[in-house]
Design brief:
Structural class: alpha+beta
Protein name: DNA ligase (ATP)
Strand order of the largest sheet: 17-18-19-20-26-25-24-23
Distance between the termini: 34 Å
EC number: 6.5.1.1
Pfam family, one: LigD_N
CATH class of the largest domain: Alpha Beta
Family: In the N-terminal section; belongs to the LigD polymerase family.
Number of helices: 13
Cofactor: Mn(2+)
CATH superfamily of the largest domain: DNA ligase/mRNA capping enzyme
Number of domains: 5
Helix content: 10-25%
Largest sheet: 8 strands, antiparallel, barrel
Strand content: 25-35%
Length: about 800
């Protein structure tokens, strides 16, 4: 979504003015208001299915949620201001004890986006709907809010959830668990609408009291906080007709942007985690909505509701065409690539494609893009295409849809000036230096005219460029020194094993043991930065060699900064002591993201690799390591024999998904490692009497920091002195978390949870502690908020 002070977007035929899209709503993760609106746009079909016809109360954080240390208060809104409410928003007026209030009904996507624009991060609804004449209907669902008291947690909530399910099953009520995005779990049970809210409340209360009687050490039904310690409250009162609960698929106003997410019952295990918007959208695309069983059939949203490639797949047989036919549903992103393909089908035409929300929105242009503003050309909208199609060239067999030769006429990136779904698109295209557009920025408008009464017909118009358009960032310039490079974020690998490889074609690379870094080269100068934005350029001056090796090129590369031992293996400990004893850093380059004005993000891995190798980057400190081949068994054996950290498996046809952890890259480790946040330290004894005995460690869990144990091995004397000096500057009086065992907390010195380290370990214990951890070193390239448990 474009970021500006104010812009207008069209949703469901309604124009909504959105403002301050760059405002950070969740400082801990950098999630912006634009990100919030993007999430609600994509999740709208499922959100509306569960929230429609229910009066919505809103919790607004107009200045963001703040941080864990300094949270900001929300404004709780019930009554709408008629003067500022669009006339297309459905509303209902409800009488309360002292006054009437007007509530919005989230009956469509436009209303949901309008509320998101008002910074309504959380939306709460009752368990009943408004009838045709505006009155209360009987509840169509019952809710049990499982809220852990102090000393209890998600594990206890899961146990209580299963106990509730047994009773609900006995009542022949279908139930669905929802991780609340906060501390507990909500259980929803479908009802037939024959009982009043008061009657449903009594049933819920009786259920809670029955479980409390059977399991007094685990369950409590009394709302008093002083009796809830170590137990889970089954809050039955939210079935009251005057109460609400956070709506399924609503964001939560916590320090992290977690979501209230319906789950499958088999997901309620010890590894259960709260989910973020990207995770929610991915699971909706892959498994659908677990809560749809509580909806009428005509209310249910198909898993493919947002799978915009359904039509594309239906028109192609993967066994008969070389075109990419991905099985996975597209995941929306913010990419802005374009491609124009010369297509010699039954009639020559040009396919014009713009990346939007995870697909290539496509038009067939019989006469090609107009080269004169005086001319307008017909553009016929076709089915959305997968992003992989952006690099496709080849011959589609005759008899197949679109049979004929396809060649890339031009490709690159575009700037979106306007995108009104089903109405108009205006974009400035920045193509290849030798592309069909002539290597200069070109501005096109595509307008939905429905010429001849055909809804597929649009009109393509070439627009005059304004001076600002021709000086845009991704075009070429007279001097490579002055060229501004696009900003790329590193693609991340998912934790996996050889069992996850399946039948896809993979290439295996060495998993290097160092600091991940994106390198930018322009005008013969190189700069390097970590995933969290830390500038490594001056830290490792020897890596300036990259600039001279690529002099004459502009490029963005991905790689790992490492220190090498005498056998050529990466040594993380040596990297920690860079500069001591003459040790030098090396940059292992394994991907090429951008070269001489052309983005390679949508180019398959195999082609990016060829382009990288063609640069012949072989310097004293800069290297392009050879791969370990495509044989999984052989690659893993070599990795273990050479005592490497592990391998990275990459699909040969995978595109580069910047900023995302994707299943097309898998990291398969030879030993288990875990990033950790240091939250305190315990003084040593004996030979360590004046220094550190052990470090107290945590990771981010469902409800903030979670203690995972302490580490007391893996240090040398020099490291202990450095660590103590570093931590003494971060001291605080109280711990940043509340689940440290008394024995570990005794005599501990507490510190701000701002430093990330890494340990090796044997396994996770039954109590979620690290067994036999050993210190590896600091991770200045990592942010504390990104540290979570890795179960691979």
């Amino acid at each position: 979504m474009a970021k500006s002070e104010q812009t207008a977007i069209e949703v469901g035929g309604h124009e909504i003015k959105v403002t301050n899209l760059d405002k950070v709503m969740y400082p801990e993760t950098g999630t912006t208001k634009g990100d919030v609106i993007d999430y609600y746009r994509q999740v709208a079909p499922w959100f509306v299915a569960h929230a429609s016809r229910r009066p919505a109360t809103r919790k607004r954080w107009v200045n963001g949620v703040g941080t864990a240390d300094e949270p900001r208060d929300a404004f709780f809104h019930k009554n709408l201001d008629p003067a500022s409410t669009p006339d297309w928003v459905a509303t209902v007026s409800l009488e309360h004890r002292h006054r009437a209030s007007t509530y919005p009904l989230v009956d469509d996507e436009a209303t949901l986006i309008w509320l998101a624009q008002l910074a309504s991060l959380e939306i709460h609804v009752p368990q009943w709907k408004v009838g045709p004449r505006g009155g209360h209907q009987n509840p169509d669902r019952m809710i049990l809010d499982l809220d852990p008291g102090e000393g209890a947690g998600i594990a206890e909530c899961i146990e209580v959830a299963h106990l509730c399910k047994e009773l609900l099953d006995g009542m022949k009520l279908t139930s669905v668990p929802v991780t609340s995005g906060s501390k507990g779990i909500h259980l929803y049970a479908g009802l037939d609408g024959k009982h009043t809210a008061a009657q449903v409340t009594e049933v819920a209360k009786a259920l809670a009291e029955a479980l409390e009687k059977e399991h007094p050490d685990l369950v409590v039904s009394n709302m008093r906080k002083d009796v809830r310690g170590g137990r889970v409250l089954i809050d039955w009162s939210e079935n009251n007709g005057n109460k609400t609960a956070v709506a399924p698929y609503s964001l939560r106003g916590r320090d992290h942007p977690y979501v209230a997410v319906p789950r499958e019952w088999n997901e309620l295990t010890a590894s259960l985690e709260q989910l973020t918007p990207p995770q929610v959208l991915q699971r909706l695309a892959s498994i659908g909505d677990p809560m749809q069983v509580l909806l009428d059939k005509d209310e249910r949203v198909s898993r493919t509701a947002k799978d915009r490639l359904t039509k594309y797949r239906s028109m192609r047989d993967q066994a008969k065409t070389p075109e990419p036919v991905p099985e996975a549903s597209p995941v929306a992103g913010e990419g802005k690539s374009f491609v124009i393909q010369e297509h010699h089908a039954s009639r020559l035409h040009y396919d014009f494609r713009l990346e939007r929300d995870g697909v290539l929105v496509s038009w067939a242009v019989p006469k090609g893009p107009p080269d004169d503003p005086k001319d307008n050309h017909l553009a016929v909208m076709t089915e959305d295409h997968p992003l992989e199609y952006g690099s496709f060239e080849g011959t589609i067999p005759q008899g197949q849809y679109g049979g004929g030769e396809v060649k890339i006429w031009d490709a690159g990136t575009y700037e979106c000036e306007k995108w009104r779904d089903d109405k108009e698109v205006i974009a400035v295209l920045h193509g290849r230096p030798d592309g069909g557009l002539g290597g200069e920025p070109v501005k096109f408008a595509i307008v939905h005219t429905k010429m001849g009464g055909d809804d597929k017909n649009w009109l393509m118009h070439r627009m005059e460029l304004e001076p600002a358009d021709s000086q845009a960032t991704t075009g070429t310039s007279d001097s490579t020194t002055d060229q501004k490079l696009p900003r790329f974020e590193a693609m991340l690998a998912s934790v996996g094993s050889d069992d996850d490889l399946g039948t896809r074609d993979w290439v295996f690379e060495t998993k290097w043991d160092g600091y991940r870094a994106i390198a930018e080269v322009t005008g013969g100068q190189a700069s390097l930065r970590s995933r969290n934005g830390k500038d490594f350029t001056r830290t490792y001056p020897e890596l300036a060699e990259l600039g001279s090796l690529l002099d004459g090129h502009t490029a963005v590369l991905d790689g790992e900064i490492v220190a090498l031992d005498e056998d050529g293996r990466s040594n993380f400990g040596s990297l920690q002591n860079h500069g001591a004893g003459g040790s030098k850093a090396h940059y292992m380059v394994f991907d090429l993201l951008y070269l001489d004005g052309e983005s390679l993000l949508r180019t398959p891995y195999s082609e990016r690799r060829k382009a990288l190798e063609a640069l012949t980057l072989d310097g004293e400190y800069i290297h392009v390591p050879v791969t370990l081949g495509s044989d999984a068994e052989a690659a893993l054996k070599v990795s273990k024999d050479l005592k490497l950290e592990g391998v990275i498996a990459k699909t040969i046809d995978g595109v580069y998904q910047q900023g995302k952890r994707a299943g097309t890259w898998l990291k398969i480790k030879n030993q288990r490692m875990q990033e950790v946040i240091v939250v305190g330290w315990k003084p040593g004894a004996g030979s360590r009497a004046n220094t550190i005995g052990s470090l107290l460690l945590a990771v981010n869990g469902d409800d903030g920091l979670t203690y995972v144990g302490r580490v007391g091995t893996g240090f040398n004397a020099k490291q202990l002195a450095e660590i103590k000096k570093r931590l003494e500057r971060l001291e605080r009086k109280t711990p940043a978390l509340d689940d440290v065992p008394r024995a570990d907390a005794k005599d501990a010195k507490w510190v701000r949870p701002s430093e990330v380290g890494e340990v090796t370990f044997g396994e996770w214990t039954a109590t979620d502690r690290l067994r036999h951890p050993a210190w590896r070193g600091w991770r200045p390239d990592k942010n504390p908020q990104d540290v979570v448990r890795e179960d691979g």
